[in-house]
Amino acid sequence: MAGQFINLLASILLLLAFAMLSQRRIKLLVSLFMIQGLTLFTNTIVIASTTGQAHLYYSALLTLSLKVVILPWILFRMIRQLNVEWDVETLINIPSTMLAGIAIVIVSFNLALPISHLAGTITRGTIGIAMACVLLSLLMMITRSKAISQVIGFLSMENGLFFAATSTTYGMPMVVELGVALDVLVGVLILGVFFFQIREKFESLDLKHLEKKEE
Amino acid sequence: MLAVLGFPLLGGAFLAKWGNRRWAPEFNSAASLLTLVSAILLALRVLLHGPMIVFHEQFFIDSFNVFLVVLTAFVAFTTTIFSRPYMRNEQVLSGLTNYQLRLYHSMYQIFCFTMLLALTTNNLGILWVAMEGATLATVLLVSLYRTRESLEAAWKYFILCGVGIAQALFGTILIYFAAEKVLGAGGTALLWTHLNAAKGSLEPTVLSIAFVFLLVGYGTKVGLVPLHSWLPDAHAEGPTPVSAVLSGLLLNVALYAVVRGKILVSGALETRFADNLMIAFGLLSVLTAAFLLWKQKDIKRLFGYSSIEHMGLMTFAFGIGANFAGLLHMTVHSLTKSAIFFAVGHAAQHSGTKSMDKITGLIKSPAVGWGLMLGGLAILGMPPFGVFTSEFLILTHAMQSHPWATPILLVALGVAFAAIFGRVQSMVWGESKGMALPHAPAYLPIMIHLAIVLVLGLYIPRHLAQWYNDAARLIG
């Protein structure tokens, strides 16, 4: 029962990764990121209650506060101040990005196969999905040109990694998770400062305006 | 032990508040000097009493990392001496604000703290956290001038290294996964000492996948081709003291992380999988960087590419098992390259440009001219400097174990020689168009670094050689 619920949540995560890949409005992108965090939180809670791993409750709380409350709040505030709430990004060729995404999912399932065989966790079926989420976020960072979308891609990659950690090993040791969370938070704050500086200098947040440096 | 980490952290917090005062540079140097003294004391302890494990096994010092701790503390200290007049000149020349100065001094110390943490920690997870922390600190340093170029460089640096280091986190998760089977869940399964003891029984398939992720992840920070493109930009656009510590220290620390991973993976695998990967990445980096050197116009980018070349050479050396030579090369490269950046920084300030075509006649201020000339010769591997010794050792080792790689290396070194030597010569000689600087540059760090490299080229003290041998045995 719990196993099926976990699988359901994992497939929602995969769907969300695809939704983020094709979402063109920045504000909705942040909302998607928030839903992703929420799914991750529910998933962690379910795993924690079925396996009785006490420390997973803490990391679920960490996920809830950081990825559902603090980070989306910072991001929403930032896009309001930058006045890009309803900006629409021109994405080239969504269908082919989707196809590339599907290819990535197949590759990651193959790559995860030997790992899931060895894993003894009830979540071993989801390791492939976790790997796919990481690589899909990477694809999203490559295809986007707006600074904020790249950062959201980065954050959702971190979500994917967190998901991978919970499904392979029921989470990393607490001290490591705290450190990772701290790094992510500081990183987003620094990037926030960056957005304003970039916009001041380039009058846009579109990174296409950065001239390409020759090698 | 506590002091090594405590001084930079406290210094960073203190300078965040008062880093714009007149005495801030001196305070910066003092904090680094205290760090250096405690690092040396730590090294002496390890030398006399052997490896030590402290604080619930969270920190672990052996002869491999203690030598890097001392090197890091030393170069960090000399860089603060160089940065004192350099930043004062920058204040006059490019109008740095008080806020920027505070940011600079504070982040410099925090950066040193994260590097020392990465070196001394026993926990692979904390190692990751510290590396990411170092990225964040240096992103702020690279973008210090707030120009278009520096913002672009910092953005590229953050995104590339962020993505790279996320791969390393995945690798770390996989190692934890493999270790949990053997060591049980909980804190000990990420502790390097425990992993090392149990490396024979770790699952080989998982570890080889993990190593690929670790190598790609930390390799991005080492600057291995094809993940190198952030490195020249970050070196060129940040303040020169930052370029010096990036090249001299951060790349070493990232390589240290790769080598730690390699020790585990080679222990678990019967094959030479990890070695071969490192050889391939190393050779590719050396070769690509050597040819790209020709296209450079900016003096700091030139030496940035030279760093890629040398990091590739070290990766190759650890791959073929020439550990002694690799460690020696780490030392001499970091000393020489930071000395070069010191000279380059003053040269660029003298001439008011970083474009190599416009810099001439540096010899007029002899320390800068000779510093760049000798530093250039040293980094190109001319005898009697230490780089010659380490490169010679790497080449002879390669000839015995991987003969096919030797000609590739020789070609790359030759190409790099021609590229850098010509450039340096035309910058040093000729008529000077430079202007006098408001604050006299610090020549001492350049000379001390080059002198040490020279001594290491002529004669490696017995204790030091012993130390290198111990460390080389650890790497296996």
Descriptive keywords:
heterodimer, A: 215 residues, mainly alpha, 79% helix, B: 476 residues, 78% helix, 1% strand
Task: Please explain how this structure is put together.
The complex is a heterodimer of chains A (about 220) and B (about 475). Chain A has about 220 residues and is mainly alpha-helical. Chain A has one domain (about 1-205). Helix content of chain A is about 80%, strand content about 0%. Chain A has seven helices and no strands. Chain A has helices at about 1-20, 25-50, 55-80, 95-120, 125-145, 145-170, 175-200. The longest helix of chain A is centred in the N-terminal third of the chain and has 29 residues, at about 55-80. Chain A starts with a helix and ends in a 13-residue tail after the last helix. With about 475 residues, chain B is mostly helical. Chain B has a domain at about 275-300 and about 315-475. Chain B has 18 helices and two strands. Chain B has helices spanning about 1-20, 25-50, 65-95, 100-120, 125-140, 150-185, 190-195, 205-220, 230-235, 240-270, 275-290, 300-320, 325-350, 365-380, 385-400, 405-430, 445-460, 460-475, and strands at about 50-55, 60. Chain B has a two-stranded antiparallel ribbon with strand order 1-2. In chain B, α4 packs parallel to α10 (about 240-270) and α8 (about 205-220) packs antiparallel against α10. Chain B is globular and about 65 Å long. The interface of A and B includes residues 141, 180 and 197 of A.
